[in-house]
Structures are given as C-alpha cells and as structure tokens.
Amino acid sequence: MDARDKSGEVGVPDVRGLGRLAVGAFVAWHVIAIVCAGLALPEPTRGWLISAVGPYLRATGCWEVWDMFAPNPPVVNTRLSARVTLASGEVRLWRFPGLDGLSMSQRTLRQLDRQWSDRLSRPENAAAWPDAARYIGRLHAQQGLEPRRVELIREQVDIPPMAAPEEQRSRSGPAVTRRKMCFFTLELPAGAGP
Fold first, then answer.
1. Is the dihedral of CA 134, 135, 136, 138 positive or negative?
2. Which of 23, 62, 101, 124 has the greatest CB tally within 10 Å of its CB?
3. Per-residue pLDDT of the chain (194 residues; tens, 9 = 90+)
4. How far apart are CA 114 and CA 152, in angstroms?
5. Phi, psi at residue 74, to the nearest 5°?
6. Distance from C-alpha of 15 to C-alpha of 62, rounded to nearest angstrom
7. Residue 39 — left, alpha, or beta (φ > 0 → left; ψ -120 to 50 → alpha)?
8. pTM passes above 0.85
9. What is d(CA 180, CA 100) in angstroms, rounded to the nearest whole number?
10. Residue 120, CB half-sphere, CA atoms under 13 Å: how many?
C-alpha cells in the first residue's frame, strides 16, 4: 500500500506517528528515570539504578537529592567561599551566592545553584575545581583587578539535632563552625587572563 498524505497524494510518508512515538518514548524514559532515582531500594539494586539513570538526570538538571529524608540526613550545612589574592597583595573574600534573604520564589529558582555549590567541594567533583577558581578570577578581572591566586574554601556548620534545646535550634542563634578549610588553590600567572 502506498503512503498518502491527507490530500491523497502518493509518495509522501506520514511522519507524525513517528514524532509522537519519539516524544512518548522520551517522556516515558524521563518519568522512569526520575521514579527510579527516587525509589528507596536496598543496595545493590539502588546503586545499579542510579548508575543507569544518574548521568542522564545530572546532564539534564533533573537530579533530585532526597537525602534530607534519608535514614541518615545531613548533619552539617556547607557554605563555599573563595579567598582571592590580588597582584597588589590585597586579599578579598568572595562568597558563593547563597539563599539568605531571598523570597521563596527566588530560593526555588536558585536551588540548582545551591546544589552545585553544596557538591563542588566533594572529592568526586575535583575536576570542576580549576574551572570554578578561574570563574571567580574572571569575576575579579572584570572589575579591573589582577587576581594572582584563588583559594576555594569549604565551611561546614553543625545542624543541631531536633532534640536540642529550642534556643540552639533557632536560626537567629549563633551557629558553631565545625571546620573551615581550603580545599583547592589555583595560581594565576601575571598578565594572563584566568
């Protein structure tokens, strides 16, 4: 039987069915990937599923981290900053953009930035450290400054347990820094852009 379009002409294949099939397959894969990543399955099944769908979800920005609800939720808040040494010897502190003081809608829009900065200092993401340091150097160079060294700093602050006294859990109360450490240093040569 010949392929006919709506006008009845022969030789024109109908590709609408293939397009719908492709879109349907993509949506199905996307939903399956998100559901698989969110399932609380025992190891090694969970590890196998994450290795199968994780790269796709990270590449598309759809990775969700549910460890806040896990049996062992995080016990520290991590904040990143950078110490930038200029050619003049002046040292400036640059903070990664945080969520403090933002409205709920702004926090939602900046969520991926927060997740990126939360994960940057992890050893498995060391390949991104030079690029992050160069980016911070470029930000300073765009202001007409001459950065010579960029040090990435991780600061971790304890999250008080729910059983802690009310004043210790209060956001307005002082938080005790667990540790502050430089985890990467990039030297920038004189006269070369970062």
1. positive
2. 62
3. 455 555 556 555 666 788 888 999 999 988 888 887 777 667 787 778 878 888 888 777 777 666 556 666 777 888 899 999 999 999 999 998 777 777 877 877 777 777 777 788 888 889 999 999 999 999 999 999 999 999 999 988 887 776 655 655 555 555 565 788 999 999 998 765 55
4. 16
5. -60, 145
6. 30
7. beta
8. no
9. 20
10. 26
Token pair of 46 as six digits: 């969970």
Enumerate the domain spans of the chain. 16-68, 74-187
- Both tokens of residue 114? 């927060």
Helix axes 16-38 and 45-60, enclosed angle (nearest 10):
120
Enter the tokens of residue 53. Answer: 């769908």
CB 62 within 8 A of CB 34: yes
Q: 3-class DSSP state for residue 95? A: strand
Given a contact cutoff of 8 angstroms between Cβ atoms, the answer to whether 159 and 182 are in contact is: no
